[in-house]
Task: structure prediction
Amino acid sequence: MGKIIVLRLGHRIVRDKRVTTHVILTARALGANETIISGERDDNLIMKLEKFIEKWGGEFKISFKEDWKKTIEEWRSKGGKIIHLTMYGINLPEIIDELRRVWSQNDIMVIVGSQKVPREVYELADYNIAITNQPHSEVAALAIFLDWLQQGRELTREFHKPRLKIIPQKHGKKVIKIESEIDINPRETEKQDRGR
Result:
């Protein structure tokens, strides 16, 4: 399978910091390899998210590129395919099999917007895809798209070299703190829900 890159268009520092953070966390958790942010440059946001990745593991990359159009065109020139998530596109169930075939042979760039997406994006995209043809959140659209594309395999993915690891529990919380790569018995830290 190819790489999955998420391009976040039109980031605004004041209005979009929280949602852009959620886009990036969702992309990382659900199997993407990289996020590119376009819009207002926000080095502080990138720095905070890079520290988060150091703690939770994985080799996820975050970068800023001012010129979104050039970024898309460069991606296409290297043979990558462009998938734009928009409520005006073809609904996902109608085209998911074709998208999986495309991804099996190509790297893909998934575009999600914040403010109104320029018309050129619709024309540059190889696919305009809708997660329902109703207004909703770009975070929800990205999560559903990544899950359908990978058929749920991303939900059991292990992250490389984490410093913290959650041990799934039916009740309460359990986190393992990994001191170093050579620790055989990592120190365990249990956080119990007070209200249970």
Remarks:
- The mean pLDDT is 90.
- The beta strands are 4-11, 34-39, 61-64, 81-91, 108-112, 127-130, 164-166, 173-177, 187-191.
- The longest strand covers residues 81-91.
- The CA atoms of residues 120 and 183 lie 52 Å apart.
